[in-house]
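ARCHIVE RECORD
Type: protein–small molecule complex
Small molecule: magnesium ion
Source of inputs: curated submission
Record status: active
Notes field left blank by submitter.
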Amino acid sequence: SAKKSGKSQFRFYDRAFYAHLLERLEVERSLRLAIELDQFEMFYQPRVDMVSGRVCGLEALIRWHHPNNGLVNPVEFIGIAEETGLIKGLGKQVMEKVCAQIANWSSQHNFEVPVSINVSPQQFHDGSVHEFLTACLTRFHVPPRLVEIEVTESSMMGEESMVTREMESLQALGVKLLVDDFGTGYSSLAQLQRLDMDGLKIDRAFTSELGRTREGEVFVAAIVTMAHALGMRVVAEGVETEEQMAILKRLHCDEAQGYLVSRPVPATEIPALVSLAAG
Ligand code: C2E
Ligand code: MG
Ligand code: MG
Ligand code: MG
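STRUCTURE (tokenized, with ligand):
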């Protein structure tokens, strides 16, 4: 009977796995179509300077206008796009959209704020990020200083020469590099220094601990000290309360991003937000 239950357990696992596989295949199929039909829109979330209170940057965050499911957040599809390689095509659409938007804000609203783009580790593997971004910047007449790239710690792992070369080419172009979700991965001090990162974004898991546990504050203080010693700016992600903002100010964090300032919004809402914060 041990053998029998073992077998049925296997069947159960098999069926669950099959359902999971079908679901992923379905998402992959509709994602492929969505890329062809261009069903994506970039939302933008401001980042403010802690000292002046001004908007000093924007993060571009992708949204999918799904024909049946409405507006879909990236957690639902970025993982699958990465696993299937679809992220490469999607990532190119993102770079195009962001550069076109920067050009539009600059010409229609006369403002220039750097915009950061999230780039998945898989996008670096064929070595085309630098080349494609350069083409977009040229096509839309966007100066490289208005674009920043956010990479996760996993992109910086190891000595992978392609990734290193891509990052160095981007920096040589004048594009700043930010480490995203800092504290959740395994990057070492040596990697931060070797890749000469311009800034790091403290993951919101740590921000949410501020004011709740002593450890949260100790951790953020240590990151800020280390980052500043390495010449990097520090952005706190996921700032939701005035209390967190006050603690971050006291700890000399440079910039804040989160629902307290604004949620990610469509591009059309950005000019009002920027002038409001500036005035
Ligand atoms: P991320 O780069 O760490 O982006 C920050 C996420 O935190 C965003 O989720 C943002 O909406 C959310 N957030 C911002 N402030 C707060 C806050 O105060 N509280 C809470 N609870 N959340 C906050 P979103 O837009 O759903 O994006 C999720 C992830 O998807 C991003 O995490 C990024 O890793 C990925 N992603 C988004 N857009 C792109 C893209 O264009 N390309 C690639 N490769 N990945 C993307
Ligand atoms: Mg990010
Ligand atoms: Mg992040
Ligand atoms: Mg994240």
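CURATOR ANNOTATION: The CA atoms of residues 5 and 11 lie 10 Å apart.
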